[in-house]
Design a protein that fits this description.
about 270 residues, alpha+beta, Thrombin, subunit H, six-stranded antiparallel barrel, 2 helices, about 35% helix, rod-shaped
C-alpha cells in the first residue's frame, strides 16, 4: 500500500498558518472574536438565502391553498349561474306562454266557454305534421276538437290520452276543412299537405290573391268564421277552380293553443 509522505519544505508554512488561525481566534473585539466574525460573515448570506427560500415556500403553500379555495368558489358560482340561467329560461318560457294564452282568449272571446288552453310539448311539422299537447281527457279534451293559434286554425285533435293529446295540423295530407273565400258566396274544401289548396269551387270562379279564407263549419268539426289562411294565384283545373293557400298559423311560432269543443259532438 502506498504511503502518504509529508514534504519537509511544507512544514514551516503549514505551521505558520495554523499559528495565525489560533492567534486570530484569540483576538477579541466588541463584536466577538475574529473567528466568530469570520464565521458570521461567511454564514450570513447562506442564512439569508435559507430564510428567503423558507419564506417563499410558505408563501407558495399559502398561495396554493388560496388558489384551491378560489377554484372551489368559482365552481360553486358557475353551478349557481347555470342554475339561474336555467331558471330564467323557464320563467321566460312561462311568461311567453302566459302572454300567448292571454292573447288567445282575447282574440276569440265568443269561443271562451268550454275552451281549454294547452301548452305545446313537442312538434313535428315536417314529417308527421303533428304536435303534442299537455292537456288530455282529464282536462275535457276530445277527439276532433279544433285547435287555434293566435293567427288562425292550426288543425284538430286526432288522438287523446288521459293527460295529453295529439294535433293533426292542416299541413297533414289527410287534413281537410270546409271553407270559403271572404266576400264570395261559394264554398270549397281546403285540403292539407305541404302546399294546402282550396278545391271544389265552381269553374272560372274569380278569387283575388290575398283573400282571407275562413271555415264554414259544414264538415262538422270547425265552427264557422275561423281564419284558415289567404289565397294565392287561382287556376282552373278540370271542372273546378283550384286556389293554392298560405296558411295563417305556423306551428313553429306556437307555444300555447286554444282547444274548442268539437262541433260534431265527438266523444273522447
Amino acid at each position: 500500500m502506498a504511503r502518504l509522505r509529508f514534504r519537509s519544505d511544507y512544514a514551516l508554512p503549514v505551521v505558520c498558518v495554523g499559528l495565525y488561525i489560533v492567534a486570530a481566534a484569540q483576538v477579541r473585539s466588541p463584536r466577538g472574536s475574529a473567528l466568530t466574525i469570520a464565521v458570521a460573515a461567511v454564514s450570513s448570506p447562506i442564512l439569508a438565502v435559507a430564510d428567503a427560500v423558507g419564506n417563499a415556500w410558505q408563501s407558495f403553500l399559502a398561495g396554493r391553498a388560496d388558489l384551491a379555495k378560489t377554484l372551489e368558489e368559482l365552481e360553486r358560482l358557475r353551478r349557481e349561474t347555470a342554475q339561474l340561467h336555467h331558471t330564467n329560461q323557464l320563467l321566460a318560457a312561462e311568461l311567453l306562454a302566459t302572454r300567448q294564452g292571454s292573447r288567445l282568449l282575447a282574440a276569440f272571446p265568443q269561443l271562451s266557454e268550454g275552451t281549454v288552453l294547452a301548452r305545446v310539448v313537442a312538434r313535428d311539422a315536417a314529417v308527421t305534421h303533428s304536435m303534442r299537447l299537455d292537456r288530455g281527457r282529464a282536462d275535457g279534451v276530445r277527439v276532433d276538437a279544433p285547435v287555434l293559434a293566435e293567427r288562425g286554425v292550426l288543425g284538430r285533435v286526432d288522438r287523446v290520452w288521459e293527460h295529453g293529446s295529439r294535433v293533426q295540423l292542416l299541413t297533414h295530407p289527410a287534413a281537410a276543412a270546409a271553407a270559403k273565400p271572404v266576400g264570395l258566396d261559394v264554398e270549397g274544401l281546403v285540403q292539407g299537405g305541404d302546399r294546402p289548396t282550396m278545391t271544389g269551387l265552381p269553374p272560372y270562379t274569380t278569387v283575388a290573391p290575398d283573400t282571407p279564407v275562413v271555415t264554414t263549419g259544414s264538415e262538422g268539426i270547425y265552427p264557422p268564421g275561423l281564419l284558415l289562411g289567404t289565397t294565392l294565384e287561382a287556376r282552373t283545373q278540370g271542372l273546378f277552380t283550384v286556389v293554392p293557400m298560405q296558411l295563417a298559423a305556423h306551428p313553429s311560432d306556437v307555444v300555447v293553443v286554444l282547444l274548442l269543443q268539437p262541433a260534431g259532438g265527438s266523444t273522447p
